Amino acid sequence: xxxxxxxxxxxxxxxxxxxxxxxxxxxxxxxxxxxxxxxxxxxxxxxxxxxxxxxxxxxxxxxxxxxxxxxxxxxxxxxxxxxxxxxxxxxxxxx
Length: 95
Hints:
This protein has 95 residues and is an alpha+beta fold.
């Protein structure tokens, strides 16, 4: 399975909309910056019929070092969860 990267997205959108790649790049960068800033502020981002991004804090816990099997403390960390919309899940699972 191939990966679609940001530059390819820019090219596809520019071709489909007849907007310059420079302008499309600005729009995409601004969109990603807005999503990032919103999540960093602790707020969710809901993109209808696609997904919801939610910031989440994972609490610290005890773990085991995989090589020497000693007890270790795993620090708390911030992450983002993604919940797919019902519509997207349905399309993903079409046969």
